[in-house]
Protein: 3-isopropylmalate dehydrogenase
Organism: Paracoccus gahaiensis
Amino acid sequence: SDRYSLLILPGDGIGPEVMAEVVKVIDWFAANRGMEFDVSHDLVGGAAYDAHGAPLSDATMARAQAVDAVLLGAVGGPKYDALDFSVKPERGLLRLRKEMDLFANLRPAQCFDALADFSSLKREVVAGLDILIVRELTSGIYFGEPRGIHSDDNNPDNEGGRVGINTQRYTSGEIRRVARSAFELARKRGNRVCSMEKANVMESGILWREEVTWVHQQEYPDVELSHMYADNGAMQLVRNPRQFDVIVTDNLFGDILSDAAAMLTGSLGMLPSASLGAPMANGRPKALYEPVHGSAPDIAGQGMANPIACILSFAMALRYSFGELAAADALEAAVERVLADGVRTADLMTPEGGRPVGTAEMGDRIVAAL
Amino acid sequence: SDRYSLLILPGDGIGPEVMAEVVKVIDWFAANRGMEFDVSHDLVGGAAYDAHGAPLSDATMARAQAVDAVLLGAVGGPKYDALDFSVKPERGLLRLRKEMDLFANLRPAQCFDALADFSSLKREVVAGLDILIVRELTSGIYFGEPRGIHSDDNNPDNEGGRVGINTQRYTSGEIRRVARSAFELARKRGNRVCSMEKANVMESGILWREEVTWVHQQEYPDVELSHMYADNGAMQLVRNPRQFDVIVTDNLFGDILSDAAAMLTGSLGMLPSASLGAPMANGRPKALYEPVHGSAPDIAGQGMANPIACILSFAMALRYSFGELAAADALEAAVERVLADGVRTADLMTPEGGRPVGTAEMGDRIVAAL
Ligand SMILES: CC(C)[C@H](C(=O)O)[C@@H](O)C(=O)O
Ligand SMILES: CC(C)[C@H](C(=O)O)[C@@H](O)C(=O)O
């Protein structure tokens, strides 16, 4: 069979703990399903800064470019808050996204039935929620030039004498390719795409709307397309999130709206993500998989973090990088079975819920359920 | 007593209907509390475009500059969707904000006890919610240059051949003045400010954080200040909105986060806003008041819109422009009393809720309760 190469970047905080459980899952598929994985490990974020003075070394970057899929845990923590912008842990993640050209960030927001009561929203508003946010990940205000903080001393009206600048810049090509990803994904789901921008205020939003519409008319007329201003989108996500199927939006709106959507589900410790780029020579897309949650420094090192988001990120790798659809389904089903059996990490417990399991036990239970 | 000058701009959609009820309230205060109002009326948005070919005429702009307070209904509607960006209804509103230099947009998100069950969030998460979002309103990506859509024909990688650009630009002075507004307001409430940006990704966010911190240390050390990334802010607003007192953030984040916060309350038809600038010669701030809801074209002209958000916007005018604190309190209390009596417009009804009142009857009941 094919060999699958993986680079594991556990990162900071709870990253290493949850990634250890993913390794158990990888080993299970290797031992029991005849898959062959070439797994290597490296540093990213604060851990890389501590070792090399940079949140991603050139050597790690080169390895990430060469593998089929990168699995990332989480980056950041209070220890690194005072670092200069250019070497903050986040810059390691942003460099991976940019240099691997991972333009389509897939963030499913699913409400797991066993956990619907964890949402701050009413059960009847979120039960069965299953939406997919496709966020543009390599352009927009995250990367546009010019950017920086400059002195503005010649401006007598500017108390403080500085100015901070960032640039939102989108080309039509950048918009079209992520729109295509969204339409393709919609065809495999509910066949509906809602595109969000602020075309009433921003010219880059007008271009966004026009290019998404063009791709729709030329290539995906069978998919239902609607447009919504991003502020209304935030409202509608809170009011009635199940009205959506696939949402496509830019880097910055996607950052905020996908976090809001994730929180709707009440299952932040459960949500995976995939960041995909163009196909490589072997036909597989450039790819990075990571949980939506952060490094959670407050609980790091205590063995209590929930590894499910990271494990489900590996399920996305099985699906989108390796085409192992049956294996991906089996892994997701194993997670659901363990939850249905009442196995819960601390974040999934109500006060009267009994004894929580730790990170390692949750991983073991999921492997056993496979 | 003083005379108070008001310019009423009802605008589009339900704007004229809800504003008619505000006029009743103004008349009541004139007749019964010895206040003297100079009230004039004019056009904004699509209504102004229909009359003058521009969403705000120069003459209207000059009148807005000369009055104590502008009351605005709502702008926009499907009839104007195809108009060129430069004459869209929204441009009229943005011109008012910019030329009047209304840098501090106050958006309270309150959950009215009688209406807590309307929220899509659980009652225990939103009951008693009372937060205030202070949004910077005259700068940032809404107004920064360069901006526009250009051809990018020399770039062979850009399928489509265009590029859309907007610029996020903040001066330290712009950040400091809105931070001061937030700290001042916090002192009259819970004495806590949370500032939101993306300082982990945007240099303008770093400047934002540094300048807010500077104002805090120099001038408001007695107020509690915290910082949060805007994506986490969106999450926390959904998870546990009552953790906040005053939130201060930039124009674009404020647009999105305040709409999400408004929707949390379940009372979109109830929420007012104030946009304040620098003091004029008479000591009153430049000011514009408007409901948070939009022009609601689907129900316009049917006499069923909820006028409370617009009436409460006038209460904010009484408080912030005229210093009529007792009158503002009385008007807010009248609204609460009418709600407590079970009087409901259609948007505030559950299916089994009985007969809704229309726009005019709701206005009459509030006047009667005064
Ligand atoms: C860590 C940070 C740079 C990142 C972002 O802003 O994109 C994170 O919030 C995310 O959504 O993946
Ligand atoms: C109508 C539109 C231009 C406006 C904005 O984006 O500021 C609106 O959404 C608001 O929040 O007042």
About this structure: Residues A 90, 93-94, 255; B 200-201, 231 surround 3-isopropylmalic acid (ligand 1) (CB under 6 Å). The two ends of chain A are 21 Å apart (CA to CA).
